[in-house]
Amino acid sequence: MAAPKKDPDEKRTEKIDTRLTPHEKQKVLASCSAAGLTESEFTRRRILDYRVPASKSPTDTALLSELNRIGVNVNQLTAATHMDRQFVEYWREIGKELEGVLVKVAAAYDS
């Protein structure tokens, strides 16, 4: 199914041309990448004072990945538990993994 047609006043037809130094351009591109946005979307959000997602450091990304993996395991174990299966040893293992990640989070963000 095609996207609905935009009203003429909603179409982005206007353009702003800005000159930057090579260093400034690299800084903008790095910020775009960190925010997960295209150059146009990042620039538009900054100019119009819209929310720009906070950049994630490699530590943030790694910790979020670990927490997500543990969350998936918890969800699977919960479903299995509701089917009257016993997985006590796995709950303990998941608890230990979660404690390890929480120690890493505390170490990364305690200042």
Jot down its keywords.
single chain; 111 residues; mainly alpha; 2 domains
Task: Note down, in words, how this protein is organized.
With about 110 residues, the protein is mainly α. Helix content is about 65%, strand content about 0%. The protein has two domains: about 20-55, no CATH class; about 60-110. It has helices spanning about 20-35, 40-45, 60-80, 90-110.
Short description:
The protein has 111 residues and is mainly alpha-helical. It has helices at 22-35, 39-47, 58-82, 88-109.
The end-to-end span amounts to: 51 Å
Strand residue percentage: under 5%
Structural class computed from helices and strand pairing: mainly alpha
Quaternary structure state of the chains depicted: single chain
Layout of SSEs?
Blueprint: H1 22-35, H2 39-47, H3 58-82, H4 88-109
Helix pairs in contact: 1-2, 3-4
